[in-house]
Design goal:
It contains 3 helices and no strands. With 101 residues, it is mainly α. It is 73% helix and 0% strand. The two termini are 13 Å apart. The relative contact order is 0.21.
């Protein structure tokens, strides 16, 4: 029988802990970016000419804020997938403990 087990229980537990932290952190950053938090302006990738060449500068900056926020939500989703994979690995490790050879 082919096993999908590729990491041990400690590594899987570490993956879950890091994934939970990543989901919480990135979800909060996504919320703050989509609400256009002024504190995060240094993390928005805009150039100085974006401010001077645009007729409505706040709208272009808000568009960049939203894009960075969506990227944070996508990364949080990837962390959810990693947590699910780590959880499956923990379950497979527990099942392996009860198997008789």
């Amino acid at each position: 029988m082919v096993s999908c087990l590729f990491c041990g229980p400690k590594l899987a537990a570490c993956g879950i802990v890091i994934s939970i932290w990543g989901v919480i952190m990135l979800a909060m950053l996504g919320i703050f970016f989509t609400t256009h938090s002024a504190v995060l302006i240094e993390d928005v990738p805009f150039k100085e000419e974006d401010m001077h060449n645009d007729q409505e500068p706040p709208h272009s900056i808000y568009k960049l804020y939203n894009q960075v926020g969506y990227n944070c939500f996508i990364a949080a989703g990837i962390y959810v997938l990693v947590a699910a994979l780590s959880f499956c690995q923990i379950k497979l490790n527990h099942r392996k403990e009860y198997m008789v050879r």
